C-alpha cells in the first residue's frame, strides 16, 4: 500500500516538474527581483542598521538579503495555489480524483515541487547576496539552513491552506498578495525591527516572517549558531503544522474550484 502511494505521488511530482521546467519564468522573476531591489535599497538598509545600533559597520546587505528573500518567498504562495487551481481550469481534477490516488496523496504531491523551488530560491538569493552585495555571515551557515527549511515549508503550507479555504483563484491571489505584504512589514523584512513603529512590535510575533527574520538576524548580525536559532525554527515548524491542520480539515476533493473570478 505504501509503495503504491509513493509511486502515485512520484508520478504527480514528475508532472509538476515538467510543468515548472516548461515555464520557469515565475521562479526566475521571484529570484531576480529581490536582487534588483537590493541594489537600490542597500544604502537605506545600511543607514537603518547603523542608526539602530544593531551593527555599526553594517553595509546594508545584512538586512537587505534576508529581508528581500523572506518577502519574495511569500509571493510563492500564489504559485502554490495556481498549481492546484489549474487542475480545475484544465478539467483534469476529476480525472485525478477518479484515479487510485487518495486526496491526501494529491495534496502531498503538490507540496514537493513548490517546497524545492522555495529552498532553491532562498539558496540563490543568499548566494547572490554574498557575491553581489558582500553579505557577511558572522555565524554558522548551517544555522541559516535550520531556519530556511521550516520557513520554506511554512510558505508552501500557507498556499495549501488558502487552496483549502478559497473557492476562486481571484480570492486566493488577493489574500496571498495581502499576506505577503503584511508579513513583510510586520516581520521586519522591509525595515530592521529596531526601526519598526511601536504599534507593530506586539503584533510581529504573530506572523511567521518575524521568526524567520529573527533567526536570520541571529546568525548574520550576532554570530549565532544552530542552538541559537532553535526557537525561531521551532516556531516556524509550529506555524507549518497549524497550517497543515487547516488544510486537512477544510480541504474537500469534491469541491469545485474556479480558475476565474
Describe the protein's architecture and organization.
The protein is mostly helical. The protein is built from 10 helices and no strands. The chain has helices spanning 2-22, 25-51, 61-73, 76-89, 93-98, 103-133, 141-165, 169-187, 208-220, 230-250. The termini are far apart. The mean pLDDT is 89. Residues 25-254 form the ABC transmembrane type-2 domain. It comes from Streptomyces ruber. InterPro entries: ABC2_TM, ABC2_TM_bact-type, ABC_2_transport, Nod_factor_ABC_transporter.
Task: Compose a concise summary of this entry.
It is a multi-pass membrane protein. 73% of the residues lie in helices and 0% in strands.
Radius of gyration: 19 Å
Helix and strand element order: HHHHHHHHHH
Parts with pLDDT < 50 across at least 5 consecutive residues: none
Shape: elongated
Helix content: over 70%
User: In what range is the share of β-strand residues?
Assistant: under 5%
Biggest beta-sheet profile: none
Question: What's the N-to-C terminus distance?
Answer: 39 Å
Query: What is the average per-residue confidence, as pLDDT, rounded to a whole number?
Result: 89
The total of beta strands comes to 0
Count the DSSP helices: 10
Protein name: Transport permease protein
Subcellular location: Cell membrane; Membrane
Membrane topology: Multi-pass membrane protein
Organism: Streptomyces ruber
Attribute tags:
single chain; 261 residues; mainly alpha; elongated; ABC2_TM; cell membrane; Nod_factor_ABC_transporter; transmembrane helix
How does the SSE layout of this entry go?
Elements: H1 2-22, H2 25-51, H3 61-73, H4 76-89, H5 93-98, H6 103-133, H7 141-165, H8 169-187, H9 208-220, H10 230-250
Helix pairs in contact: 1-6, 2-3, 2-6, 3-6, 3-8, 3-9, 4-6, 4-7, 4-8, 6-7, 7-9, 7-10, 8-9, 9-10
